[in-house]
Amino acid sequence: MSEASTHERIDALVRSDDVVLFMKGTRDFPQCGFSAVVVKALKLLDQPFTEINVLEDPDVREGVKAYANWQTIPQLYVRGEFVGGCDIVREMYESGDLQSLLAQKEGSAQS
Fold first, then answer.
1. Beta strands in the chain (DSSP E)
2. pTM to 2 decimals?
3. Which of the chain's ends, N or C, has fewer CB atoms near its CB within 10 Å?
4. How many independent structural domains does the chain possess?
5. Residue 109 scores a pLDDT above 60
6. How far apart are CA 80 and CA 77, in angstroms?
């Protein structure tokens, strides 16, 4: 697959849902500890999300790194915007920033 068409495909995936997680494995069976940490945070917040298992598609696995200019997986997107990887998501969860970001998604944003 060409780099341009992979980029377009990833762009469509990122915009396919409010919360999208590119990860290794699935929500029920994460294939790496970093992916498991992000899944756990989202589950603890009872946050629905779309998971994209990058292990099933080498083009997406490599392409998503270029898409966000972020070389590690998992990668979390909220409303089409890149949030970060495991460490950032964990820090945001611990500080309450992740909960605030997700609450904004639900229309309860505070100005």
1. 19-23, 25-26, 29-30, 50-53, 75-78, 81-84
2. 0.90
3. C
4. 1
5. no
6. 6
How far apart CA 30 and CA 47 sit, in angstroms, is: 17
Q: Rg for the chain (alpha carbons), in Å?
A: 13
Peptide bond into 48 cis (omega under 30): no
What is the model's pLDDT at position 108?
Answer: 43
Q: Does 110 map to a domain?
A: no
Tell me which amino acid residue 35 is. S
28: tokens are: 């029920």
Residue 27: domain span: 3-105
Q: Is residue 32 part of a domain?
A: yes
Instruction: Kindly provide the b/e burial profile for residues 3-24, where b requires at least 16 CB atoms within 10 angstroms of the residue's own CB.
Output: eeebeebbeebbeebbbbbbbb
